[in-house]
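User: quick one, fold this
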Amino acid sequence: MLDGIHRAGVVWQNTYRPCDASSPLFLYIAIEFSTTLERHRLGMKYSVIVPTYNEERYVLRCLQSIRDQRYDRSQYEIILADADSTDSTQLVAKTFCDKIVTTSRRGIAVGRNLGAANAIGDYLVFVDADAVLNQGFLLQLDTSFRDQSAVAVTGIAKPSDGKIFQRLVYQSTYVLVRVFNIFDLPLFPGICVAYRKNEFVKAHAFREDFGIVEDLDLSRRISKLGKCIVNPNAIAYVSTRRLERHALSTVLFHIYNDLKYLLTGKAAKEYPKHEELPSWRDIWKNS
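Assistant:
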Protein backbone atom coordinates (compact mmCIF):
# COMPACT_ATOMS: atom_id res chain seq x y z
CA MET A 1 0.00 0.00 0.00
CA LEU A 2 2.83 2.40 0.83
CA ASP A 3 5.27 3.00 -1.99
CA GLY A 4 7.91 4.56 0.21
CA ILE A 5 8.63 6.18 3.56
CA HIS A 6 11.42 8.58 4.45
CA ARG A 7 12.10 10.63 7.55
CA ALA A 8 12.18 14.43 7.89
CA GLY A 9 8.58 14.95 8.78
CA VAL A 10 7.83 11.38 7.71
CA VAL A 11 6.66 11.65 4.11
CA TRP A 12 4.54 8.74 2.92
CA GLN A 13 3.88 8.35 -0.78
CA ASN A 14 0.54 6.59 -0.73
CA THR A 15 -1.27 4.93 -3.63
CA TYR A 16 -4.34 4.05 -1.58
CA ARG A 17 -7.66 5.07 -3.11
CA PRO A 18 -10.21 5.58 -0.31
CA CYS A 19 -13.73 4.21 -0.56
CA ASP A 20 -16.81 6.30 -1.19
CA ALA A 21 -19.98 5.78 0.83
CA SER A 22 -21.21 2.96 -1.38
CA SER A 23 -17.95 0.96 -1.45
CA PRO A 24 -16.99 -2.12 0.62
CA LEU A 25 -15.03 -1.37 3.77
CA PHE A 26 -12.56 -4.23 3.58
CA LEU A 27 -9.62 -1.86 3.11
CA TYR A 28 -10.65 0.33 6.04
CA ILE A 29 -11.08 -2.77 8.21
CA ALA A 30 -7.63 -3.96 7.22
CA ILE A 31 -6.15 -0.57 8.10
CA GLU A 32 -7.96 -0.53 11.42
CA PHE A 33 -6.71 -4.01 12.28
CA SER A 34 -3.14 -3.26 11.26
CA THR A 35 -2.94 -0.11 13.38
CA THR A 36 -4.60 -1.46 16.54
CA LEU A 37 -1.35 -2.68 18.09
CA GLU A 38 0.46 0.56 17.24
CA ARG A 39 -2.35 2.64 18.77
CA HIS A 40 -2.19 0.70 22.01
CA ARG A 41 1.60 0.85 22.08
CA LEU A 42 1.71 4.59 21.59
CA GLY A 43 -1.46 5.42 23.52
CA MET A 44 -2.38 7.86 20.76
CA LYS A 45 -5.69 9.61 21.37
CA TYR A 46 -6.09 12.13 18.54
CA SER A 47 -5.02 12.18 14.92
CA VAL A 48 -5.25 15.74 13.62
CA ILE A 49 -5.62 15.70 9.83
CA VAL A 50 -5.08 18.73 7.58
CA PRO A 51 -5.96 18.27 3.88
CA THR A 52 -4.02 20.55 1.53
CA TYR A 53 -3.46 21.62 -2.04
CA ASN A 54 -1.17 24.64 -2.58
CA GLU A 55 -1.69 26.06 0.90
CA GLU A 56 1.75 27.53 1.55
CA ARG A 57 0.24 30.91 2.50
CA TYR A 58 -1.90 29.52 5.30
CA VAL A 59 -0.74 26.12 6.47
CA LEU A 60 2.14 27.34 8.65
CA ARG A 61 -0.13 29.11 11.15
CA CYS A 62 -2.54 26.19 11.10
CA LEU A 63 0.13 23.63 11.93
CA GLN A 64 1.71 25.88 14.56
CA SER A 65 -1.64 26.13 16.32
CA ILE A 66 -1.98 22.35 16.34
CA ARG A 67 1.56 21.82 17.60
CA ASP A 68 1.08 24.42 20.36
CA GLN A 69 -2.02 22.87 21.91
CA ARG A 70 -2.13 22.78 25.70
CA TYR A 71 -2.12 19.01 25.46
CA ASP A 72 0.35 16.17 25.92
CA ARG A 73 2.14 16.05 22.56
CA SER A 74 2.60 12.30 22.84
CA GLN A 75 -1.19 11.91 22.82
CA TYR A 76 -1.81 13.30 19.35
CA GLU A 77 -0.26 13.14 15.91
CA ILE A 78 -0.36 15.67 13.08
CA ILE A 79 -1.01 14.38 9.57
CA LEU A 80 -0.87 16.45 6.40
CA ALA A 81 -2.81 14.91 3.50
CA ASP A 82 -1.54 16.68 0.41
CA ALA A 83 -2.84 16.46 -3.18
CA ASP A 84 0.60 16.84 -4.79
CA SER A 85 0.89 20.57 -4.18
CA THR A 86 2.99 22.44 -6.72
CA ASP A 87 4.04 25.09 -4.19
CA SER A 88 6.05 24.69 -0.95
CA THR A 89 3.20 23.33 1.18
CA GLN A 90 4.99 20.06 1.96
CA LEU A 91 8.29 21.82 2.68
CA VAL A 92 6.60 24.18 5.14
CA ALA A 93 4.80 21.28 6.82
CA LYS A 94 7.81 19.02 7.41
CA THR A 95 8.80 20.72 10.65
CA PHE A 96 5.40 20.24 12.23
CA CYS A 97 3.94 16.99 10.91
CA ASP A 98 4.39 13.44 12.10
CA LYS A 99 3.24 12.19 8.69
CA ILE A 100 2.77 13.70 5.27
CA VAL A 101 0.68 11.50 3.00
CA THR A 102 0.24 12.34 -0.64
CA THR A 103 -2.07 11.54 -3.51
CA SER A 104 -2.40 12.69 -7.10
CA ARG A 105 -6.17 13.01 -6.65
CA ARG A 106 -7.76 16.36 -5.89
CA GLY A 107 -10.71 16.85 -3.56
CA ILE A 108 -11.00 17.64 0.13
CA ALA A 109 -12.91 14.43 0.85
CA VAL A 110 -10.11 12.43 -0.77
CA GLY A 111 -7.54 14.20 1.41
CA ARG A 112 -9.49 13.71 4.61
CA ASN A 113 -10.05 10.02 3.92
CA LEU A 114 -6.40 9.54 3.02
CA GLY A 115 -5.35 11.11 6.30
CA ALA A 116 -7.84 8.97 8.21
CA ALA A 117 -6.55 5.82 6.52
CA ASN A 118 -3.07 6.56 7.89
CA ALA A 119 -4.20 7.69 11.35
CA ILE A 120 -3.51 5.74 14.54
CA GLY A 121 -5.55 7.88 16.95
CA ASP A 122 -8.85 6.81 18.47
CA TYR A 123 -10.36 10.13 17.39
CA LEU A 124 -9.99 11.86 14.04
CA VAL A 125 -9.81 15.65 14.07
CA PHE A 126 -10.19 17.39 10.71
CA VAL A 127 -8.87 20.93 10.40
CA ASP A 128 -8.89 23.10 7.28
CA ALA A 129 -5.50 24.46 6.24
CA ASP A 130 -6.60 28.08 6.71
CA ALA A 131 -7.90 27.52 10.24
CA VAL A 132 -6.03 28.32 13.45
CA LEU A 133 -7.03 26.40 16.58
CA ASN A 134 -7.39 27.95 19.99
CA GLN A 135 -4.78 26.46 22.32
CA GLY A 136 -7.43 24.63 24.33
CA PHE A 137 -9.15 23.02 21.35
CA LEU A 138 -8.14 19.43 22.07
CA LEU A 139 -8.93 19.85 25.77
CA GLN A 140 -12.43 20.94 24.77
CA LEU A 141 -12.78 17.83 22.62
CA ASP A 142 -11.89 15.79 25.69
CA THR A 143 -14.73 17.47 27.56
CA SER A 144 -17.27 16.62 24.86
CA PHE A 145 -16.09 13.07 24.23
CA ARG A 146 -16.46 12.20 27.91
CA ASP A 147 -20.02 11.58 26.85
CA GLN A 148 -19.62 7.99 25.69
CA SER A 149 -22.57 8.36 23.33
CA ALA A 150 -20.86 11.21 21.43
CA VAL A 151 -19.62 10.24 17.98
CA ALA A 152 -18.98 13.69 16.53
CA VAL A 153 -17.97 17.07 17.95
CA THR A 154 -17.63 20.32 16.06
CA GLY A 155 -16.03 23.45 17.34
CA ILE A 156 -16.96 26.98 16.30
CA ALA A 157 -14.97 28.59 13.47
CA LYS A 158 -14.82 32.37 13.83
CA PRO A 159 -13.65 34.62 10.98
CA SER A 160 -10.12 35.92 11.47
CA ASP A 161 -10.28 38.53 8.71
CA GLY A 162 -12.54 39.87 5.99
CA LYS A 163 -15.10 42.59 5.43
CA ILE A 164 -18.47 42.82 7.16
CA PHE A 165 -20.35 40.62 4.66
CA GLN A 166 -17.65 37.93 4.65
CA ARG A 167 -17.50 37.81 8.44
CA LEU A 168 -21.27 37.75 8.72
CA VAL A 169 -21.47 34.69 6.44
CA TYR A 170 -19.16 32.66 8.68
CA GLN A 171 -20.78 33.85 11.89
CA SER A 172 -24.29 33.07 10.67
CA THR A 173 -23.17 29.64 9.43
CA TYR A 174 -22.33 28.52 12.93
CA VAL A 175 -25.48 30.04 14.38
CA LEU A 176 -27.39 27.81 11.97
CA VAL A 177 -25.19 24.81 12.87
CA ARG A 178 -26.17 25.20 16.52
CA VAL A 179 -29.86 25.73 15.76
CA PHE A 180 -30.10 22.75 13.42
CA ASN A 181 -28.32 20.54 15.93
CA ILE A 182 -30.90 21.39 18.60
CA PHE A 183 -33.49 19.87 16.29
CA ASP A 184 -31.40 16.73 15.69
CA LEU A 185 -30.22 17.82 12.27
CA PRO A 186 -26.42 17.87 12.58
CA LEU A 187 -24.87 19.70 9.65
CA PHE A 188 -21.26 20.06 10.73
CA PRO A 189 -18.80 21.96 8.50
CA GLY A 190 -15.41 20.31 8.11
CA ILE A 191 -13.40 23.33 9.25
CA CYS A 192 -12.77 22.01 12.77
CA VAL A 193 -14.63 18.79 13.48
CA ALA A 194 -13.81 15.49 15.20
CA TYR A 195 -15.17 11.95 14.98
CA ARG A 196 -14.64 8.73 16.88
CA LYS A 197 -12.62 6.64 14.46
CA ASN A 198 -14.66 3.45 14.90
CA GLU A 199 -17.87 5.28 14.02
CA PHE A 200 -16.16 7.13 11.19
CA VAL A 201 -15.32 3.76 9.64
CA LYS A 202 -18.82 2.40 10.25
CA ALA A 203 -20.29 5.49 8.55
CA HIS A 204 -18.11 4.85 5.46
CA ALA A 205 -16.04 8.04 5.80
CA PHE A 206 -16.44 11.09 3.55
CA ARG A 207 -18.14 10.66 0.21
CA GLU A 208 -15.61 11.33 -2.50
CA ASP A 209 -18.22 11.74 -5.21
CA PHE A 210 -19.26 15.00 -3.55
CA GLY A 211 -17.22 18.12 -4.27
CA ILE A 212 -19.22 20.04 -1.66
CA VAL A 213 -21.41 19.21 1.38
CA GLU A 214 -19.36 16.04 1.95
CA ASP A 215 -18.88 17.28 5.52
CA LEU A 216 -22.59 17.91 6.15
CA ASP A 217 -23.39 14.52 4.65
CA LEU A 218 -21.04 12.65 6.99
CA SER A 219 -22.38 14.36 10.10
CA ARG A 220 -25.92 13.38 9.12
CA ARG A 221 -24.96 9.75 8.47
CA ILE A 222 -22.84 9.36 11.58
CA SER A 223 -25.61 10.83 13.75
CA LYS A 224 -27.42 7.52 13.33
CA LEU A 225 -24.65 5.93 15.40
CA GLY A 226 -24.64 8.34 18.33
CA LYS A 227 -24.76 11.91 19.56
CA CYS A 228 -23.39 14.91 17.64
CA ILE A 229 -22.25 17.78 19.85
CA VAL A 230 -21.52 21.43 19.17
CA ASN A 231 -18.88 22.68 21.62
CA PRO A 232 -18.89 26.50 21.59
CA ASN A 233 -15.67 26.57 23.62
CA ALA A 234 -13.69 24.64 21.01
CA ILE A 235 -12.75 27.64 18.91
CA ALA A 236 -10.91 28.00 15.63
CA TYR A 237 -10.21 31.14 13.64
CA VAL A 238 -10.62 30.78 9.89
CA SER A 239 -9.73 32.93 6.92
CA THR A 240 -12.58 34.32 4.83
CA ARG A 241 -10.41 34.06 1.69
CA ARG A 242 -13.02 31.93 -0.09
CA LEU A 243 -15.18 35.03 -0.22
CA GLU A 244 -12.49 37.43 -1.40
CA ARG A 245 -13.64 37.00 -5.00
CA HIS A 246 -17.16 36.40 -6.27
CA ALA A 247 -18.49 36.44 -2.70
CA LEU A 248 -22.20 36.54 -3.51
CA SER A 249 -21.93 33.83 -6.17
CA THR A 250 -19.98 31.60 -3.78
CA VAL A 251 -22.51 32.01 -0.97
CA LEU A 252 -25.43 31.30 -3.31
CA PHE A 253 -23.60 28.24 -4.65
CA HIS A 254 -23.28 26.90 -1.10
CA ILE A 255 -26.91 27.59 -0.28
CA TYR A 256 -28.06 25.98 -3.52
CA ASN A 257 -26.03 22.82 -2.90
CA ASP A 258 -27.03 22.62 0.76
CA LEU A 259 -30.70 22.70 -0.23
CA LYS A 260 -30.14 20.36 -3.15
CA TYR A 261 -28.49 17.85 -0.83
CA LEU A 262 -31.18 18.10 1.85
CA LEU A 263 -33.98 17.70 -0.69
CA THR A 264 -32.47 15.20 -3.15
CA GLY A 265 -29.34 13.75 -1.54
CA LYS A 266 -27.25 15.09 -4.43
CA ALA A 267 -24.62 17.79 -4.73
CA ALA A 268 -22.02 19.25 -7.10
CA LYS A 269 -19.19 16.84 -7.87
CA GLU A 270 -16.53 19.54 -7.99
CA TYR A 271 -15.72 22.60 -5.92
CA PRO A 272 -12.73 24.48 -7.37
CA LYS A 273 -10.42 26.62 -5.27
CA HIS A 274 -11.40 30.27 -5.38
CA GLU A 275 -8.05 31.17 -6.95
CA GLU A 276 -9.01 29.06 -9.96
CA LEU A 277 -12.20 30.97 -10.74
CA PRO A 278 -11.71 33.75 -13.33
CA SER A 279 -15.44 34.58 -13.32
CA TRP A 280 -18.31 34.28 -10.86
CA ARG A 281 -20.03 32.00 -13.39
CA ASP A 282 -17.29 29.38 -13.31
CA ILE A 283 -18.23 27.99 -9.91
CA TRP A 284 -21.61 26.95 -11.34
CA LYS A 285 -20.28 24.92 -14.27
CA ASN A 286 -20.50 21.56 -12.48
CA SER A 287 -23.40 22.32 -10.13
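User: anything notable?
Assistant: Residues 2-244 form a domain with the Spore Coat Polysaccharide Biosynthesis Protein SpsA; Chain A fold (CATH 3.90.550.10).
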